[in-house]
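Second attempt. The first submission of Epoxyqueuosine reductase had a stray character pasted in from the spreadsheet, which I only caught after the job came back as garbage. Lesson logged: always re-copy from the clean sequence file. Corrected sequence (308 aa) follows.
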Amino acid sequence: MNNKAKYTQQIKAEAKRLGFLSCGISKAGFLEVEAPRLEKWLNNNMHGEMQYMENHFDKRLDPTKLVEDSKSVISLLLNYYPSQEQTDNSYKISKYAYGNDYHHVIKSKLKELTHFIQDEIGEVSGRAFVDSAPVLDKAWAAKSGLGWIGKHSNLLTQQVGSFYFIAELIIDLELEYDHATTDHCGTCTACIDACPTQAITEPYIVDGSKCISYFTIELKENIPTEFKGKMDDWMFGCDVCQDVCPWNKFSKPHNEPLFNPHPELLEMTKKDWEEITEDVFKKVFQKSAVKRTKFSGLQRNISFLKPN
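This time the job returned cleanly.
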């Protein structure tokens, strides 16, 4: 076995040991197919007020401009599908935000993987990314065979659907590279038909400025009144397009204790949410990604959802 093959096997085995669902590797380089798509999406203002999407256009499409001398993009998936969900009579939170903030959980796993690579293989440089830098996560995961990008623009796999996080290690080590898989959406339009705000404007294109996740997390101004009554009780994020996807019937609960929700979270009713105090917010979401919207943001979302 040559060194490239050996190192690749070692990295994938360690990723599995750390609890990652899967690991795929691509050669670092310019994303030719994604370039015109991203440009068109930005030109059509589908990023709404997410101004940061316009920054670092070149780096977003070419990791060699982001990480010096990079040779490989290691893509990793981490399952977050919960074993229990919120009570029916509740305003809803996206499943990914039930437990501890994924950025911290995944960063520490990536740190361990980096240390392993340096201990076992030697002087390897690179950077870890968890949804916080100009990296097209889904494009790289698809390129490395971890799934295909579905009509709802999320990464999908036949084995476990789409309820997982994507992260990357971009390093200056040549490895053996995986190949993209095929698209298995077929003629299905479940996600397009179910989107409460018609944010999926055509297959594989999501208008971010109409997405419930955008309204409840990214948008700092008031939610546009034309979406009143169309938010399907989502107060932080939205899982509709994933919930209706036939491939997600294969989702299996995660086994990451840090992603388990605060016990109170699952029991809270609409009335509890409407009366939530800042102290309860801090207690329930102490380590959660929901903190990003702040107490005032969550209150804004809840009052928008309340019937007049």
